[in-house]
Amino acid sequence: MGGSKMDIRTKVSSRKATTKQKIIYALIAVFIVLVPVIFQGIGQLFLVRIMGVVGLYVMLALGLNIVVGFAGLLDLGYIAFYAMGAYVGVIVGDVMLKTFGASFGPWVYFASLPIAALAAAATGIALGTPVLRLRGDYLAIVTLGFGEIVRILITNDVFGLTNGPAGLPRSGQSIPEPFGLLWLREHAVFSIGDNFNFQFSNNLYWYFIAVLLCLLTIFVVRRLDDSRLGRSWTAMREDEVAAASVGINITTAKLWAFSLGAVWGGVAGLTFANFQQFVSPESFTFMESVFVVCIVVLGGMGSIPGAIIGAIAIQGIPELIRGLAQSGILPLDPGQASLVSNYRYLVFGLVMVIMMAVRPQGIWPSARRAMELHPDDEKIQNEESQSLWEAEHKTDTADHDL
Amino acid sequence: MSGDVIVQQLVNGITLGGLYALIALGYTLVYGIMLMINFAHSEMFMAGGYVGLFVLKALTNEAWVGAGAVGFFTGSTIGLIVLFVIVFLAAAILVGILGVVIERFAYRPLRHAPRLAPLISAIGVSIFLQNAVLLWVDSKALPFPAVMPVVTVVKVGGVTVNSLQILILVTTLLLLAFLDTFVSKTRIGKAMRATSQDREAAGLMGIDINQVIGLAFFIGPALGGIAGVFHGMYYGSVKFDMGFLPGMKSFTAAVIGGIGNLRGAMLGGFVLGILESLAAGFLSAGYKDVVAFAILILVLIFRPGGLLGESVVEKV
Hints:
Largest sheet of chain B: 2 strands, antiparallel
Structural class of chain B: mainly alpha
Number of strands of chain B: 4
Radius of gyration of chain B: 20 Å
Strand order of the largest sheet of chain B: 1-4
Order of helices and strands of chain B: HHHHHHEEEHHHHEHHH
Distance between the termini of chain A: 17 Å
Strand order of the largest sheet of chain A: 1-2
Oligomer: heterodimer
Number of helices of chain A: 16
CATH class of chain B: Mainly Alpha
Number of helices of chain B: 13
Strand content of chain A: under 5%
Radius of gyration of chain A: 24 Å
Helix content of chain B: over 70%
Strand content of chain B: under 5%
Number of strands of chain A: 2
Shape of chain A: globular
Largest interface: A-B, 44 and 46 residues
Number of domains of chain B: 1
CATH architecture of chain B: Orthogonal Bundle
Helix content of chain A: over 70%
Order of helices and strands of chain A: HHHHHHHEEHHHHHHHHH
């Protein structure tokens, strides 16, 4: 018994970074801050933009990861929460602007962010409550239907709030600039030589907001994974009946998964709307939901680095190739460049099929999930039989001692 | 809404319901045997539309089959019937083969995987096929040639029933009756029923499971392909994303009837088609699709076993 407790402790403490890991983290941090500044300086604005969008998708993937990876509930309508966050945030922001006047403009984004998050969480609970009893594949279809209903309602200008296919803000209105952007644009300006002229931009601002939100998400998601709730999700995912019989409240666990997953969708949605300065139902199709599922599956269900790698691979790389071709850096003509982005869905389809057959645990799987999906993995089997043998051996010696 | 309009919507709904029933059978057959939602089934329907279109174009192209053949196909009633039989057979067989190939490569390796794996794989297949058509055929809707003259057969007051609607309904009912007899009366049908009850035990009794699964993946897509051709004829065009909504609605139909239950799928198809057409008449057309999805969600929540299905008990 003492031995197994020690094992758990070492596993937990191994989360503390070693020197090597610290250096890697520092390098990543420098990369995250410096690279977009350089891109901005040399005038390649689209690269900053792509990095910002990748950041939003990392957030979406991490949020969906809570539902799919941790709790094991396949959600094919996750983009509905993204839409809720974007629309509720923009509509509420507009009301705030009207109530408090134009001087409140810089604070609108920050003030509407918690409201967007809450709206998404409430939507998550509203969706979660009726579907609690459903089996995995039925649940997937219900969430798909829910996502489509949300999109159709938005397209049909429900309650006169969403302005239909034309999107928000309505003509003549605009999403106000956030706090600090104006100041940064005027003051964060410098040049190195003739070719490097840096001026702070809208894209850079939202990129850094996205990075900060990603860090917050990663922090929360890691804490969740290790929490009591996170462990009850794991138990529930592996065997719902067994989990219920050891006292886990399945209803609460599922609703927490839905609402906490939805929160990040909502936060990402409002940030997306501000980043774009515009939001329309086109951004919330079923394919977008599949896109995020694909990121999670490809990266590795339940894995945080997996979600980041997945977002870069699936959202970043095709956009990067297209952007580089459009700006003339890559020697591709516009036809070939658009082919890259057209072919990506085709490739994603194939990747999903191949991944499920060859590597269902994803590129960077969480250790636990890999074990579930590949129980016949030799290494794990060896470890298991080793620990079984040890356990038997220990009882044997204990018997002898007695 | 006047009485005539309601009856007219009923007629339209029954026609649509026939198509849903044909597609729903594919979902229910595969679910009954494999316990998986074949998400790619909507693309079988789409593929059927395209195969039908290309075969029809090839057979009415003088450069391909000669002027005499084209004259025969388009000039006489018998020719038209022969033409349509060929078109439908081609769509059924080719799409059926496509279904078998997909099962072999995308689903068979996952037979013992956790339940979500085949679903994700099926979504991948669906995305792949849609985009393959988008990239390699056309991203725009292709017009479906109106070879068959559509004439009004019945006209009572303001209500009309045209020849195409009757053709769809008669063919659908014949196919449903055929499939029902096939599954309940033949030896291989019995093997299918046995496999859907307990795959392992059926295998131990000497039933070739792979053959049964292959057959389910032939018949389902073949029926879906036929529905695709009808859909193309009825709406006058085919498009790469035409499968998604009818596919989702047919899945709804299969669930309404009780998934895994063949007669349930047929019933569900007609129920959904009629409800949807009436909703389009009463509410605005924009909300028509919301109705189908709302019905899907409500049925799954309140009666997941469907109308004719047994209550689904989770096996531990």
